[in-house]
Here is the input.
Amino acid sequence: MSSDLEQRLEGFLHELPEAEPEVGERALATSLAALTPVARTRRSLRAVVVAFAAAFVLLAIAAGSLAAAGALQIGFFQKPPPPSQLSLPAGTNGIAAVIYGRLSVTTRTGFRLKGLPVSAAALSPHALYVAAGVGKSLVALAPSGRTAWSHPTSMRGCPKKSDCGTVAAIAWAPDGFRIAYLVRTPTRALVLHVIWGNGTHDTVIDSNAHNTRPSWRADSLALAYVGVGGRPIVYDLAHESHTVIRWKAARQVTHLAFAPDGKELAVGTEQTVLLVGRHHDFVGRVRSASLGWLGDRLVVSGQRVWPSPPPTLLYTVSRSGRATLSRSIRVGGQVVSTHGQTVAVMANGKVLVGRLDALHTVVTFRPAVCGGSNGAYTCWGALGKNDVEVG
Amino acid sequence: VREPSDRDLVRRARRGDRDAAALLFRRYWRDAWRAAYAITGRRALADDVAADAFERAFGALGRFDDRRPFAPWLHRIVANRALDLLRAERRLSDEELPDMPDVAPVHAAGDRSLLGAVVDLPLERRVVVVLRYGVGMTPKQIAGALDLPAGTVNSRLARALEQLRESLEVEHVE
Here is the structure.
């Protein structure tokens, strides 16, 4: 009987259905993006260097000839990359951007920080502190630029380097008393922590979070994040309880933003923007790159699902579900709004801040020499003395 | 033309060869997804688990010892990720979740009664059955993958088989 049963069991997996084709294609794309090539051998590296040098010489000769004839203008670094993170805190007293893993901070009080290698960063309300993932720690920097405190990214400290991970995202509570942060562990799991603003009382909220920046409710007593299955979860700090939002459409969530009144949660997925709260509504067929609230309006940087693939643009989404093109600027990075009035976006190498109909440049990103132990190398940084003019 | 071995593909993928990585993906995606589906019982979770397992596997190829076979390593990641997700979901759930809501109804052909019985197994037993008979791992490999003593794996397998046998006999009588 047992052997007969085992024979039957050996074929049962092949009787199961298969994944939808688009699921496989999407998984393939994300898997390929996760490939981290190991260093080639010294011999092949040498061959690449020689080939690159030869190609560069030939290119320089050709370009020189064309330039001499007036047929070619040469420029490098014309289009800077979008920031991976953009943080405009309550009070609009400063702005922080992370580009190519380098932090740039500018505040109205004159605090300037440029070129610090970080994995994530966010300004506190009123730009009093900046929290950043530095190495295997969460670090808070005071306005003077000194380190206010540093906390290892493991509850047990970091007796071995392999015990700790890197900070993937940071969100300050609106009252400034707590920080939610995501740690990518050496096993690539994402762990959501909440720590007090003075660097004490670190608590693990969820060991199976997704890589989406958490969003605090305005009263700082609840936190929305993306958990198991890509579903939004609201964590109530007062009751230490988790509520999983089980609306079928709220899957594969990429962005979250609590409404200013705290009664609704805007949820961006790969296909649409949803409002979870009093009623569950579809509010726009836009593939969101980021979300932010301007009063009772929702601002989305994203792509229309149809036609595809359009550039990433800035839309406002009304409660009736209409996604309206707000400004035809190509947007990169995240939208952040504060006080329901101000929005910050990254576009064409500039950070634009202001009201939606009157955005103006506050920071321009240009290449800057950041230095390095083995000779100088180029990175991107914010330039400007009195950049921040809003408030 | 001889198909490249897993080891060849892993080595090429480690050097950044996306074609080799894609071939490796296509070779094991179906099995990985089906194993995830058999463990989690839900297509949505299987999508997440299988995709996440491949992402983690490809991200860790640089640390993978390519003298070892690729498939058991991948299925180990699949099984552990599925267990993590299901346990976390149980912990976080504010409502009772059906344990295996959509495997049996979706499955139209094949050994329906056997599948139904597998579906009814407790999670810990179901995982070892899927890894042993679905994926073809040895009890020793399963023990390593799930970080369990070999004796625990063997006892779970024996109890699972006993439960399956009883379940199938009941159905047969009915």
Remarks:
- Chain B is about 75% helix and 0% strand.
